[in-house]
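User: Can you recover a sequence for this backbone? Please restate the input before giving your answer.

Assistant: Of course. Working from this structure:
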């Protein structure tokens, strides 16, 4: 009878040790998997959530995460204004909630997103990573930069309204917004 209790105790100790080892292995695998998730992937799991994004240069973008892709996020403010945010300029994000596995990020990069904005021909505000702002219409998009003709947001792109032209590298963009 004493040996039965001894064997039961040994078996319980073995089962407890096995559970501890399994828990440690699961925790390690979880840490390993999380270490592979990029910021863009983490944010893409929050499509539909209301986010507050702090950007280099002191800017803050707020809105519902409507879409995202390789290196960019599209936020929509309550009033409908759209904001294309460069992930490279993100200093922090609030409102992401718990990580999800069902990420829906598009595969195209920020250059393709800016080309889409250019085709729309709307006036935009471009905020750079130092906090500077330029208003105008995006006229052409290259591999790593775009051309913007500067004019007031509330004026059409006409010769009389043009203040100048500028080339903006993608790496300098924190946010592009339009109404």
């Amino acid at each position: 009878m004493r040996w039965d209790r001894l064997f039961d105790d040994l078996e319980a100790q073995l089962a407890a040790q096995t559970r501890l080892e399994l828990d440690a292995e699961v925790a390690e695998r979880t840490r390993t998997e999380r270490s592979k998730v990029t910021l863009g992937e983490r944010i893409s799991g929050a499509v539909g959530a209301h986010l507050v994004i702090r950007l280099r240069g002191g800017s803050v973008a707020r809105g519902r995460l409507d879409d995202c892709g390789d290196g960019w996020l599209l936020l929509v403010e309550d009033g409908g204004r759209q904001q294309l945010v460069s992930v490279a300029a993100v200093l922090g994000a609030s409102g992401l909630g718990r990580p999800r596995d069902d990420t829906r990020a598009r595969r195209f990069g920020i250059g393709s997103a800016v080309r889409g904005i250019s085709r729309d021909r709307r006036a935009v505000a471009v905020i750079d990573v130092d906090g500077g702002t330029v208003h105008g219409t995006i006229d052409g998009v290259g591999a790593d930069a775009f051309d913007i003709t500067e004019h007031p947001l509330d004026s059409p792109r006409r010769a009389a309204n043009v203040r100048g032209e500028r080339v903006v590298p993608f790496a300098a963009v924190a946010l592009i917004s339009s109404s």
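That completes the design. The first helix runs from residue 2 to 34.
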